[in-house]
Structures are given as C-alpha cells and as structure tokens.
Amino acid sequence: MLRWIDVIKYAKYSNPEPPFTVEKTKAEWRQLLSPAQYHVLREKGTEPPYRNLYCRSYAPGTYVCAGCGEALFASQEKYHAISGWPSFTQPLSKSGLRFLFDDSHHLQRIEVQCNVCGGHLGHVFPDGPAPHGLRFCINSESLRLVNE
C-alpha cells in the first residue's frame, strides 16, 4: 500500500520505473484525444468540479488512463470525498503513477501523472480516509472506466 511518505519520496527523489512507455507527438495526441481530454492530459488542465463523468459514478470496473490505457485505479478504491472530482484511496500499483511537486496557482501540491504516457491526471493529498490517509483527486477526462 502507498503511504504519504512514499508519495513524498517519489516526488523528491525518483519515481518507480513504468512497465513500458508511450510517446506521441502533439499532433498524434490531438488526433487520439478529445479536446477536453487533451486539455487535461497534455496541457495539465482541470475540468469543472461536479460536472464531470465520474464524480458521482460508482460503477464497478477498472479506471484506466484515457491516453494510453494503463490500469490506474480499481473502482473499489473510489470514495465520495465531496471534492468535485473522482477520488481514490490507492492506485492499482506503485509503478502506474508518477508524482511531481507542483507549485502552480500559488499552491504547493503533488501532481499525479500516468507513469506510462506522462499524462496529467490530477493531484494527491494527505487528507483521505484511514488507514492510509491518501486522496487521489483525479480528473474524469483523464480516465476511462473499463467494466469487468
């Protein structure tokens, strides 16, 4: 299980090696993704709170990266955080995510990226539920739910 101290260490020193990497040109990403997905995944944008596909959805399945299809979160780890975006307590694996310090918008946060394609997913915070206390606040546009 991932803990806040692990997230800090990854962001500060080195992230886990991804199982493989996906690299595309800007033109290829634009062709593959919708404009909203491109804005979030490739331009580090944020979708509107509460008006996104997975905020209030609790269907079973696996959430994968909308850019490359890497499995990121299990639906069992999703919870109602009242943040306006889908929130998860744990990723499927430590190697699926990349963590970076983010001081944009005059805030100190830790950005979460897909470790395979480098797409921006959202941010992680240490205010989640017990026992691990993590809240992965992820943009719906960066995800795709694959039903099991």
Notable characteristics:
Metal Binding Protein, Guanine Nucleotide Exchange Factor, Chain A, 148 residues, oxidoreductase, three-stranded antiparallel sheet, peptide-methionine (R)-S-oxide reductase, six-stranded antiparallel sheet, single chain, alpha+beta
Explain this structure.
- The chain is α+β, with helices and mostly antiparallel strands.
- The protein has a single domain (4-146), classed as Beta Complex (Metal Binding Protein, Guanine Nucleotide Exchange Factor, Chain A).
- The chain is 17% helix and 26% strand.
- The protein has three helices and nine strands.
- It has helices at residues 4-12, 26-32, 35-43; strands spanning 62-65, 71-74, 78-79, 87-88, 97-102, 109-114, 120-125, 135-138, 143-146.
- Strands 3-4-8-7-6-5 form a six-stranded antiparallel beta sheet. Strands 2-1-9 form a three-stranded antiparallel beta sheet, with no helix packed on it.
- A hairpin with a 5-residue loop joins strand 1 and strand 2.
- The longest helix is centred in the N-terminal third of the chain and has 9 residues, at 4-12.
**CATH superfamily membership:** Peptide methionine sulfoxide reductase
Q: Biggest sheet: strands, sense, closure?
A: 6 strands, antiparallel
Label the overall shape: globular
Structural class designation: alpha+beta
